[in-house]
Amino acid sequence: MPTSEPISVPTSVGDRPSAAASLMYGVGLGGFVDGIVLHQILQWHHMVSATGDHPVTTVAGLEVNTLADGFFHLATWMVVVGASVVTLAQWRQGRLPPSWRLHLGGLLAGWGGFNLVEGLVDHQLLGVHHVRDDLGGPLAWDLGFLAFGAVLVAVGWMMVRAGSRSLDERGWVPTPVAGAGAGRRP
User: Fold this and answer.
1) Phi/psi at 109 (nearest 5 deg)?
2) Angle at 131 between CA 130 and CA 132, to 5 degrees
3) Could you tell me what percentage of the chain is helix, strand and coil, using 3-state DSSP and rounding each to the nearest 5?
4) What is the structure's pLDDT at 112?
5) What pLDDT is attached to residue 77?
6) Distance of CA 143 to the CA centre of its chain
């Protein structure tokens, strides 16, 4: 059945790859690593385990923390779904796929960005949990978590830059598409 919805038609073949989806994958997957490894496997903390109202030493406290962890996992899952949508949109726009270096760099930078924001907001500003709530002095673990996040951002950024430079070194130039522009579906 014909439709008159406008479609996105690429204006050039091989538009420059974007790191947007890779950064989003990094944020989402970094959140999964935090939630699965630190919350569930090691059980060092839960989302609100440092609040006096919900101690993990009681069943009621564990129920609240498990619910909060579930919402946290839902949010990180939604970021990964968003990254998939961005990836598909970029393909439809005719963008080149990112090189492995650019993609992994964006993923590491996104994971590190997640750690920095989560570490500053949840651990330091709100104080809802720390990396190790089971210890009396968790500051060293919190600082280590922030340092790890900073290293991930730095290494990821260097990889993204190297991946972008490799395109320039190969003389990449987009190729215009004849008659490109907003079109209508047949």
Assistant:
1) -65, -40
2) 90
3) 60, 5, 35
4) 97
5) 97
6) 21
Select the highest-mean-pLDDT range: 1-10, 48-57, 145-154: 145-154
Beta bridge pairs of residue 175: 13
Residue 38 has pLDDT above 50, yes or no: yes
Measured CA to CA, the distance from residue 75 to residue 87 in angstroms comes to 18
∠115-116-121 over CA atoms, to 5°?
Answer: 100
Contact, 108 vs 162, CB < 8 A?
Answer: no
Residue 98 contacts residue 25 (beta carbons within 8 Å): no
Return the number of other C-beta atoms located less than 10 Å from residue 130's C-beta.
Answer: 22
In angstroms, what is the C-alpha Rg of the chain?
Answer: 21
Q: Residue type at 124?
A: Q
**Rounded distance between C-alpha atoms, residue 46 and residue 54, angstroms:** 10
Rounded Cα–Cα distance for residues 125 and 119 (Å)? 9
This prediction's pTM: 0.80
What is the β-pairing status of strands 175-176 and 183-184? unpaired
**Is there a contact between 175 and 14 (Cβ–Cβ < 8 Å)?**
yes
Tokens of 67: 């619910």
**6 SS3 class:** strand
The token pair at 42 is 């090691």
Average pLDDT of the segment spanning 67-87: 95
